[in-house]
C-alpha cells in the first residue's frame, strides 16, 4: 500500500460492492507473515481496484460514523489518526478491510493491533490481508463481517444492518471467550512465558508442554483432588467435617422429604435456610425461612437444584456475606458479596432502576462480563413485595431494595474487596477449612456481622465450601482494589524455577529431513529421554509409532506437545504445513535447515528458490535469543538465513579446508562460535566438532553405519546436521558419538530411508527419493555402491535397475529433470506412479518422467532401457524379474510398508522353493496383512 493510491488509479464507471474473500487461512504459530498467530484473507477487489477511498463520495464519513474508534489507528504513519489520513488521501478497500477487522475485534474486547495488506504479485485487484487474532473463530468472523461492511459502505442496502450484525458478532465473541477466571490464569501464564493450548471450545486449557504440562478448567486444576471436589459438593458432609475440626458451622441436617425438612427446622429452631445438597452459584437457596409453611414452599425449589434430590436444612446465620479465597493453603483474597439490589432515587420505579442498573456496560449475561445483569423473576417480585414495594412503585431516595437474598455474582450481586481487613483468626479458620476439605483452590463462604472481628465471638459461621470458585469478584471488584490472584495459582502449578517447556528441535529442508530427525531422536533416546518425534511417516512417542500418516505439519506438533510422557521433541517441519497453518507452536530451541533445492515450486505462491527459502526460514525466525540455528554453510540460501536468527548459529559443512566457506567457519569459531566440519585424509573422512578454539573428533564417517562406509554422502551431511543439533541441545559429545554409531538405516530405525536388504541374491535399496536433487545424491551413492558390488561380484559387471516416481503436483520440468538425472546412474529405469495422483491424470506423471529419461539416453546417458509400470507393487515385482542375482535394485517408494512386505514375500517364497525343490514356492504362504495408512496431517497435500 502507498500513501497516494488516488494518484496511481484513474477511476471510471460506478463502484460496485465487488470485494470478496477468495481464501482464508488461519496461522496458529510463527508463519511467513508474522511471528505471532495471524489470519490471512486473500481478497479480490473486482471493480473496486479502480476506486480508492477518496473517490467514493461519503465513504470515509459513513465508515467513521459506525466505527468512530478507527481514529485511534496509527497505520503506517506511526501516530493516532494516521489511518484517517490514509482514508482521506485515498487507500484501497482491502487495506480498509484489514483495519475494520482489527477494530471489530477490539469492539468485542480483543485488543488486536497488528495487520498488513499486500498486493498479490502479478494479479491485479487481488490482495493478502493479514491481521492478528486472539480467538480463531472471532478473528475469522471479524474478517468476513469487515468485507460485508465495506461492500455496504460502497453501496448501502436495506438488507444489511451493521448495528444488528455487530451485536451478533459481539455475542459470538462472548460465547467463545474464556471466563474471567480462566482468562486471568492464562494472562498470568503468558506474562511468565508459559505456553498454553486450548483443549476444547470451553475452559479446558493446558499450561506448559509435555511432561511439564498442567491443566486447568476455570479454577479447577490438575492438582485438584477428585475426592476433595466430591466432599465440597456434598454440603452435609462438608459441614460435618468442618464441625469435627472445631470450626464454626451452622447446625444442619440433610433431608429428602418436605416433612423431614419441617421436622429438622423445628428441631434446630427458626429462622432456617433450605438449600440443595450439591448445588452451586446460589441456585435453589432459600434464606430466612420463618415457619413451617415457608419451609414447605422452599423445599421443592431447593430439591429441584439438587442432583441427588437431598436438601440441607440449617439455621439461618445473620450477617454479611464474605467469600474467602484460599489458594494452596493460603488466604489470597476476601470479598464482601452484596446481593443484587437497587437504590431508590425518589424518581424511578423499581423496574426502571433495574433497567438503569443493567445498562451498566460492565454487566452482561452469565459470566461474560465482570458483572451479571439482574434478572427479575417471580422470586425477585416476591422479595420486593416482602420489603413493602411493587415493581411499579417508586422507592424513597437512598432506600435499598433487594432483588435476591444471596450475594452471588452470578445472580447480579456486587463485590467489595476486604482482603486486608479480615481478622487473623478468621483467616486462620478459612485456611483450616480448605485444608480439611483438601482443596488446592477453595472458596470459603463466611456469614458474619463483621469480618474484621473474630467470628467465634460475633457468632458468624462457615456456611459453604466451594470447589472451583469464581475469581471475578476478586479480580474485578465493584468497589475496592483488584487482587491479582492468578499469580498464586500459577505459582502453585509452576513454582519459581520450575520448567514449563520441553526442548524442541525442528528440522526442515528439501531433502534429508526425516533421516536427520530420526538421528537426533536416536541420540536423545540413548540418553534416556522420552522423545516425541513427528515426520512424514507418522508420530513416534518414546519409540512407539502412535499415528501412521504424513505428520510433518503443525497439528502433529501440537499432539506431541500435549503428550504427558514427552520430555524432548523433534519435529520434521514441511513447507506445506508452514504455508497452511504456520508452525503450530511458539518457538523452537534448535532449528535445523538442511538445504534449499528446487522441489514443491509452483505451489501455493512459491515459485522461486528464494521464496521457498523464506518459507523454511520461519523456523530460524522462531529461535529465541538463547536458542540455536543449525545451518548448512554449503548452501548459499541457507547461509543467508543467519541474518534472521536471534540466537546463535551453528554451521555444518563438508567444504574442503582452505575454501572460502571453510575459512568463514574458522573465523566464526575463533569468535567463540560452534560448527561441525569434515576433515579428509588418507585414513578417511573425520567429522570434527568445533566450539571456539576447541576441536573435538566425533567419528570416522566409514565407521558410522548410516553412511554405508562413507559412500552415502547425503547421510554424512545428515549425520553432521544431527550432531550439530544434538550438541546445541546440550547432549554430551560421548552420547552424540554413541548415538550416531548405533544408528543405522535398517527398516526398524529408518523405515523407507536408504534401507538395504538382500532378496534372492540381489542387493535391494529402498528409499524415498522423489526429486532431482535427491536423485543426484542417491545416484552418487548408487555409483559408489555399484563399483563395490562389481569388485566383489563373481559374474562381472552388476546391472543397476531403478524404480522411480514423483508426486503429481510437481512441475512438468521437475518431472523431466528427475528422469534425466536417474538415467545417468541406472542401466534400466522403471517409471511408476503414486496412488495419489494429486491432480494429474493416470499415466501423465510417468510419461513426463519417461520423456526426461529418453532425452538423457539420446545424449549418451548410462540408461539403456526405460519402462513404465504404473502400480507400485507391480513395478517392484517387475524390477525383481528384470534383475539377476548380483544386481543392484533401487526402489524409490511411496508406501514403504507394502513394498517391504512384498520383498519379504518374494524372499520367503524363494527360500521355501529352495528347501522344497519346488520353484512354485510354498502354497501355504500368506502375505502379511498391511496396516492401513491414515491421513492425520498431510503436510504437502
Automatic annotation (TrEMBL):
Pfam families in UniProt: CPSase_L_D2 (PF02786), Cyanophycin_syn (PF18921), Mur_ligase_C (PF02875), Mur_ligase_M (PF08245)
Q: What is its EC number?
A: 6.3.2.29, 6.3.2.30
Question: Region Disordered: which residues?
Answer: 910-941
- Gene3D superfamilies annotated for this entry? ATP-grasp fold, B domain, Mur ligase, C-terminal domain, Mur-like, catalytic domain
Query: Which InterPro entries does the protein's record reference?
Result: ATP-grasp (IPR011761), CPAse_ATP-bd (IPR005479), Cya_phycin_syn (IPR011810), Cyanophycin_syn_N (IPR044019), Mur-like_cat_sf (IPR036565), Mur_ligase_C (IPR004101), Mur_ligase_C_dom_sf (IPR036615), Mur_ligase_cen (IPR013221)
Q: What keywords appear on the UniProt entry?
A: ATP-binding, Ligase, Nucleotide-binding
Q: Where is the composition biased (Acidic residues)?
A: 930-941
Judging by the UniProt lineage, the source's domain of life is: Bacteria
Keyword Ligase in record: yes
Is-annotated flag, keyword ATP-binding? yes
Q: Which residues form the ATP-grasp domain?
A: 239-494
> Which transformation does this protein catalyse, written as a reaction?
[L-4-(L-arginin-2-N-yl)aspartate](n)-L-aspartate + L-arginine + ATP = [L-4-(L-arginin-2-N-yl)aspartate](n+1) + ADP + phosphate + H(+); [L-4-(L-arginin-2-N-yl)aspartate](n) + L-aspartate + ATP = [L-4-(L-arginin-2-N-yl)aspartate](n)-L-aspartate + ADP + phosphate + H(+)
Annotated family: In the C-terminal section; belongs to the MurCDEF family.
Q: How does it assemble?
A: Homodimer.
Entry function? Catalyzes the ATP-dependent polymerization of arginine and aspartate to multi-L-arginyl-poly-L-aspartic acid (cyanophycin; a water-insoluble reserve polymer).
Instruction: Kindly provide the name given to this protein in its UniProt entry.
Output: Cyanophycin synthetase
Q: Which organism is it from?
A: Kribbella alba
Protein's gene:
cphA
Amino acid at each position: 500500500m502507498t500513501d497516494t493510491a488516488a494518484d496511481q488509479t484513474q477511476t471510471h464507471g460506478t463502484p460496485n460492492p465487488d470485494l470478496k474473500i477468495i481464501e482464508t487461512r488461519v496461522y496458529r504459530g510463527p508463519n511467513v507473515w508474522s511471528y505471532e498467530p495471524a489470519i490471512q484473507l486473500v481478497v479480490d477487489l473486482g471493480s473496486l481496484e479502480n476506486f480508492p477511498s477518496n473517490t467514493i463520495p461519503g465513504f470515509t464519513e459513513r465508515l467513521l460514523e459506525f466505527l468512530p474508534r478507527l481514529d485511534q489507528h496509527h497505520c503506517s504513519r506511526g501516530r493516532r489518526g494516521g489511518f484517517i489520513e490514509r482514508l482521506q488521501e485515498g487507500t484501497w478497500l482491502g487495506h480498509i478491510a484489514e483495519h475494520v477487522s482489527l477494530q471489530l475485534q477490539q469492539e468485542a474486547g480483543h485488543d488486536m493491533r497488528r495487520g498488513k495488506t499486500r498486493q498479490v504479485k502479478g494479479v491485479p485487484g487481488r490482495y493478502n490481508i493479514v491481521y492478528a487474532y486472539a480467538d480463531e473463530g472471532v478473528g475469522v468472523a471479524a474478517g468476513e463481517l469487515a468485507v460485508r461492511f465495506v461492500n455496504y459502505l460502497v453501496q448501502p442496502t436495506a438488507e444489511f444492518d451493521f448495528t444488528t450484525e455487530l451485536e451478533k458478532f459481539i455475542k459470538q465473541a462472548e460465547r467463545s471467550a474464556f471466563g474471567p477466571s480462566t482468562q486471568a490464569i492464562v494472562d498470568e501464564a503468558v506474562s511468565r512465558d508459559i505456553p498454553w493450548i486450548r483443549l476444547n471450545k470451553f475452559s479446558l486449557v493446558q499450561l506448559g508442554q509435555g511432561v511439564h504440562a498442567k491443566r486447568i478448567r476455570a479454577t479447577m486444576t490438575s492438582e485438584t483432588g477428585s475426592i476433595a471436589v466430591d466432599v465440597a459438593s456434598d454440603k452435609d458432609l462438608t459441614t460435618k467435617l468442618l464441625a469435627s475440626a472445631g470450626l464454626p458451622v451452622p447446625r444442619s441436617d440433610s433431608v429428602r422429604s418436605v416433612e423431614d425438612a419441617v421436622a429438622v427446622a423445628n428441631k434446630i429452631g427458626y429462622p432456617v435456610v433450605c438449600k440443595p445438597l450439591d448445588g452451586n452459584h446460589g441456585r435453589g437457596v432459600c434464606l430466612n425461612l420463618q415457619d413451617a409453611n415457608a419451609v414447605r414452599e422452599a423445599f421443592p425449589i431447593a430439591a429441584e437444584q439438587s442432583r441427588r434430590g437431598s436438601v440441607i436444612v440449617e439455621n439461618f446465620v445473620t450477617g454479611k456475606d464474605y467469600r474467602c479465597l484460599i489458594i494452596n493453603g493460603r488466604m489470597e483474597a476476601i470479598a464482601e458479596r452484596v446481593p443484587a439490589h437497587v437504590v431508590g432515587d425518589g424518581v424511578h420505579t423499581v423496574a426502571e432502576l433495574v433497567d438503569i442498573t443493567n445498562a451498566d456496560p460492565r454487566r452482561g449475561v452469565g459470566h461474560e462480563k465482570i458483572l451479571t445483569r439482574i434478572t427479575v423473576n417471580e422470586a425477585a417480585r416476591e422479595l420486593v413485595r416482602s420489603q413493602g414495594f411493587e415493581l411499579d412503585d417508586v422507592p424513597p431516595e437512598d432506600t435499598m431494595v433487594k432483588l435476591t437474598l444471596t450475594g452471588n455474582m452470578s445472580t447480579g450481586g456486587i463485590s467489595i474487596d476486604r482482603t486486608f481487613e479480615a481478622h487473623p483468626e478468621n483467616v486462620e479458620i478459612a485456611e483450616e477449612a480448605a485444608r480439611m476439605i483438601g482443596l488446592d483452590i477453595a472458596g470459603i463462604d463466611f456469614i458474619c456481622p463483621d469480618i474484621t472481628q473474630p467470628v467465634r465471638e460475633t457468632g458468624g459461621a462457615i456456611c459453604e465450601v466451594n470447589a472451583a470458585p469464581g475469581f471475578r469478584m476478586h479480580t474485578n471488584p465493584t468497589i475496592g482494589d483488584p487482587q491479582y490472584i492468578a499469580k498464586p495459582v500459577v505459582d502453585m502449578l509452576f513454582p519459581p524455577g520450575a520448567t514449563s517447556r520441553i526442548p524442541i528441535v525442528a528440522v526442515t529442508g528439501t531433502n534429508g529431513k526425516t533421516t536427520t530427525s530420526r538421528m537426533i531422536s536416536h541420540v536423545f533416546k540413548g540418553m534416556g529421554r522420552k522423545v516425541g518425534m513427528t515426520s512424514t511417516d507418522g508420530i513416534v512417542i518414546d519409540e512407539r509409532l502412535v499415528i501412521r500418516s504424513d505428520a510433518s505439519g503443525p497439528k502433529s506438533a501440537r499432539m506431541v506437545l500435549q503428550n504427558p510422557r514427552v520430555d524432548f521433541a523433534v519435529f520434521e517441519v514441511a513447507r506445506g504445513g508452514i504455508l497452511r497453518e504456520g508452525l503450530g507452536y511458539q518457538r523452537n530451541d534448535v532449528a535445523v535447515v538442511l538445504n534449499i533445492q528446487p522441489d514443491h515450486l509452483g505451489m501455493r505462491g512459491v515459485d522461486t528458490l528464494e521464496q521457498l527459502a523464506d518459507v523454511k526460514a520461519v523456523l530460524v525466525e522462531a529461535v529465541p535469543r538463547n536458542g540455536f540455528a543449525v545451518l548448512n554453510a554449503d548452501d548459499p540460501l541457507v547461509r543467508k538465513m543467519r541474518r534472521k536468527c536471534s540466537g546463535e548459529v551453528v554451521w555444518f559443512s563438508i567444504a574442503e579446508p582452505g575454501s572460502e566457506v571453510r575459512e568463514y567457519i574458522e573465523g566464526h569459531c575463533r569468535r567463540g562460535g560452534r560448527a561441525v566440519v569434515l576433515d579428509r585424509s588418507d585414513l578417511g573422512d573425520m567429522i570434527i566438532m568445533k566450539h571456539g578454539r576447541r576441536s573435538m573428533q566425533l567419528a570416522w564417517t566409514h565407521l558410522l553405519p548410516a553412511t554405508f562406509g562413507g559412500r552415502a554422502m547425503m547421510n554424512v551431511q545428515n549425520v553432521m546436521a544431527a550432531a550439530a543439533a544434538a550438541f546445541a541441545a546440550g547432549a554430551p559429545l560421548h552420547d552424540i558419538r554413541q548415538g550416531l554409531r548405533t544408528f543405522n538405516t535398517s527398516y526398524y530405525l529408518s523405515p523407507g530411508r536408504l534401507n538395504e536388504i538382500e532378496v534372492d541374491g540381489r542387493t535391494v535399496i529402498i528409499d524415498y527419493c522423489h526429486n532431482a536433487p535427491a536423485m543426484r545424491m542417491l545416484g552418487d551413492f548408487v555409483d559408489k555402491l555399484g563399483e563395490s558390488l562389481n569388485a566383489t561380484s563373481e559374474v562381472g559387471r552388476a546391472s543397476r535397475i531403478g524404480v522411480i516416481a514423483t508426486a503429481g503436483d510437481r512441475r512438468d520440468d521437475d518431472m523431466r529433470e528427475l528422469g534425466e538425472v536417474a538415467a545417468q546412474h541406472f542401466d534400466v529405469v522403471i517409471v511408476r506412479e503414486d496412488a495419489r495422483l494429486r491432480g494429474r491424470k493416470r499415466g501423465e506423471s510417468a510419461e513426463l518422467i519417461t520423456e526426461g529419461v529418453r532425452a538423457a539416453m539420446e545424449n549418451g546417458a548410462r540408461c539403456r532401457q526405460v519402462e513404465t509400470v504404473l502400480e507400485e507393487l507391480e513395478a517392484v515385482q517387475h524390477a525383481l524379474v528384470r534383475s539377476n542375482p548380483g544386481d543392484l535394485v533401487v526402489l524409490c517408494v511411496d508406501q514403504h510398508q507394502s513394498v517391504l512386505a512384498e520383498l519379504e514375500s518374494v524372499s520367503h517364497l524363494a527360500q521355501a522353493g529352495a528347501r522344497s525343490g519346488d520353484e512354485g514356492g510354498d502354497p501355504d504362504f500368506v502375505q502379511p496383512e498391511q496396516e492401513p495408512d491414515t491421513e492425520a496431517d498431510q503436510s504437502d497435500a
